[in-house]
Specification:
heterodimer, A: alpha+beta, 2 domains, eight-stranded mixed β-sheet, 13 helices, globular, B: alpha/beta, Rossmann fold, seven-stranded mixed β-sheet
Chain lengths: 376, 287
């Protein structure tokens, strides 16, 4: 659904150069700005350095098992879709040291390893990405326990949304209700309008501090026509998405744990875990212990884990989920079904990364639809 | 990076729930060939409160961390008791601990046995093998507060007489006029004159009032399944049957994902579950 530009926030128009200006304004305020860059023929999210400018003229083609960066031949800033990795790795790094344990003759000391709270700005987060962060917020503060490392990075993070002007080939945010438009969850929202009048950025503030930063950037007030252009563009982006998740997928998967399709997908699934490594909401982790040679100092760390590994469900006697069938079923059922019971919503935001980065091109939407089509 | 006693940044400024505190082993008892009971006392001297059925995460320096249920008396706030079977590298390291050795521990975690809901009912404890360890705090509690319950019945099955936990204590319980204890083993030599067979046989013949009975079961999943079946066949309501589940756990606080069983996080929603709430999960293999 595309909503009207929020009336109480003054929308402004920026020149395309305003995006880099915005990054530098955030840096002046002490933010470490994590922004898109091109590295090794992919879009990466990394700290914006003094010599950096945002990439221009890049797009991508994505399909099951395929990702190619392409050139647009123009100077569009945000024509590419979901980067291989989202902001999860910034807020929840793949490897985190938990504590150091020091043993002396008669003492054991546990020393928590703490990261200084960071002033992070997440720049050019797409609508699906912001939804994914909202999901992670619920995971890492579940009412009983909160993860201080996550919140040290997350609590004051400045979020700059970029609404997508083009739907990626594997995107399905529209049917998940997570994008491409977004009215909350950001400090500043940018919508790039291209090929309809001058190339420009429609900027909206979603918070007081967002409005303050925006006021520092050269621009002019937006008109109702600019808002119409945005709405039309976002409606087109949503309409361009061929993949549609069945609306009642949660109930369908819950009712079909023994569906024959699970066997069919297990024949193709390599249980490599790529889908879980690129998923912006997969939060599973395992722990790792290491120690000095004399065993006086030991370190305990946490690193990303995947429900596709055989160790993941191991208890004395063997793995609970020994078959590929049960592991794929666990992953997709968690994303689309049991997540609702746990967190009150789906764990999938429709970014399409799991489709693009699956080496055999397994498509979560196709699998869900196949089960829905012959549901028990 | 810096090291500090507390991490800033969490909502409410709480300390990292993943960080344990040191405890010292004050006593080690051998229960069976591969199972040992450790008494632990906090190095910082702070009391430790828990409810029967809860568990702790025990860390061995440089080796790792495992979830272990608490097997001690819930009324004892200073001495923490864990009964551990050596099945992996961390549990083996714990079993090899001597008096004076140090571990680090965090907890308690999880939903406890329904000791309050059980009041006024006949209470049937059904244990298989090391499953008696998580039930022991509830049994000790029932004995200490005997007047609050109807009959108190302990039914214990083990692989062999040598695999029975707390053997002397179980004998002592059996000597009490206020409770009934029955035990069986899967196989035994000629020196065993007790029962041989599965624990469900004990459930079949135990004397309790099914309409006013609450059961707590802990053991291998297949043993729990058949025990539930026998209890329901005898007329015990499914919402008064509780089981304790085991799953892989790396965090115990809902972050690591490993213990998921359907939509349940066994660490937070369990390990003790009311049977009628998880019966549908039991029916699905490899869930």
């Amino acid at each position: 659904m595309v909503c009207a530009v929020n009336k109480h926030l003054d929308a402004r128009l920026l020149d395309p150069a305003g995006a880099d200006e915005l990054v530098r304004a955030l840096q002046r305020r002490g933010f470490s700005v994590i922004a898109p860059a091109i590295e090794d023929d992919i879009v990466v999210l990394r700290e914006y350095g003094p010599a950096d400018t945002l990439p221009r003229g890049y797009s991508d083609t994505q399909d099951g098992g395929s990702y190619r960066l392409t050139r647009t031949g123009d100077d569009r800033l945000f024509a590419y879709a979901a980067a291989p990795q989202g902001f999860k790795r910034v807020l929840w790094p793949p490897r985190q040291t938990l504590y150091e344990s020091r043993r002396t003759a008669d003492r054991l000391e546990i020393l928590p390893v703490t990261e200084e709270p960071k002033k992070l700005a997440l720049f050019a987060a797409r609508a699906c990405e912001i939804d994914a962060i909202a999901i992670l917020d619920g995971v890492f503060d579940n009412g009983d326990f909160a993860d201080p490392g996550y919140w040290a990075r997350r609590r004051d993070a400045f979020v700059v949304l970029v609404e997508c002007g083009r739907s990626g080939d594997t995107c399905f945010c529209a049917s998940m209700g997570t994008g491409p438009a977004r009215e909350a969850g950001f400090d500043i929202a940018l919508t790039e309008i291209f090929g309809n009048g001058p190339h420009r950025l429609l900027a909206r503030a979603g918070s007081e501090r967002g409005a303050e930063v925006l006021a520092e950037i050269a621009g002019r007030p937006a008109t109702a026509g600019d808002a119409d252009d945005r709405n039309r563009m976002l409606a087109e982006v949503a309409a361009a998405q061929a993949r549609r998740m069945p609306a009642d997928v949660a109930a369908i998967l819950a009712a079909n744990p023994e569906h024959a399709r699970w066997n069919a997908v297990a024949e193709r699934c390599l249980t490599c875990g790529n889908c879980t490594m690129v998923c912006p909401t997969c939060f599973c982790s395992t722990t790792e212990d290491s120690s000095s040679l004399d065993m006086s100092t030991a370190t305990r760390a946490r690193r990303w884990d995947s429900c596709f590994t055989i160790d993941y469900s191991y208890i004395h006697g063997g793995a609970v989920r020994a078959s590929a069938r049960s592991r794929y079923r666990q992953w997709i059922s968690h994303k689309l079904s049991t997540w609702h019971e746990q967190f009150g919503r789906a764990g999938c935001v429709g970014c399409g990364r799991c489709i693009t980065w699956c080496p055999v091109g397994i498509d979560i939407v196709e699998e869900a639809n196949a089960i829905a089509a012959s549901s028990a | 990076m810096r090291t500090a006693g507390e991490r800033p940044g969490a909502p409410g400024g709480s300390a990292d729930p993943m960080v344990p505190r040191p405890f010292r082993v004050t006593r080690r008892r051998r229960e069976t060939a591969d199972t040992f009971t450790l008494d632990l006392v906090a190095e910082d001297g702070k009391p430790f409160a828990f409810a029967p059925g809860q568990f702790n995460m025990l860390y061995v320096h440089g080796v790792g961390e495992v979830p272990i249920s608490i097997s001690g008396d819930p009324a004892d706030g200073t001495r923490l008791v864990h009964t551990i079977r050596a099945v992996g590298k961390v549990s083996a390291a714990l079993c090899a601990m001597k008096r004076g050795d140090l571990v680090a521990l965090r907890g308690p975690y999880g939903k406890p046995w329904p000791t309050v809901e059980a009041e006024g009912h006949d209470v049937v404890f059904i244990a298989g093998g090391v499953g008696l360890a998580p039930l022991r705090p509830a049994i000790v509690h029932a004995i200490a507060n005997r007047h609050r319950f109807g009959k108190v019945i302990v039914l214990y099955g083990a692989r062999s007489p040598a695999d029975m936990l707390f053997a002397e204590e179980v004998q002592r319980w059996r000597g009490l006029f206020s409770m009934e204890v029955d035990a069986t083993v899967d196989r035994a030599g000629p020196d065993w004159l007790g029962r041989v067979g599965v624990v469900t046989k004990l459930v079949e013949r135990a004397e309790f009032d099914p309409a006013h009975t609450l059961a707590m079961i802990c053991g291998p999943e297949v043993m729990m399944r058949f025990s539930v079946e026998m209890l329901t066949r005898r007329g015990v309501a499914e919402d008064r049957i509780y089981v304790s589940m085991e799953r892989n756990m790396k965090c115990a606080v809902g972050f690591c994902g490993h213990c998921q069983w359907g939509s349940a996080f066994v660490c937070r929603d369990g390990p003790v579950f009311r049977h009628d709430r998880i019966a549908h999960l039991n029916a699905i293999r490899e869930l």
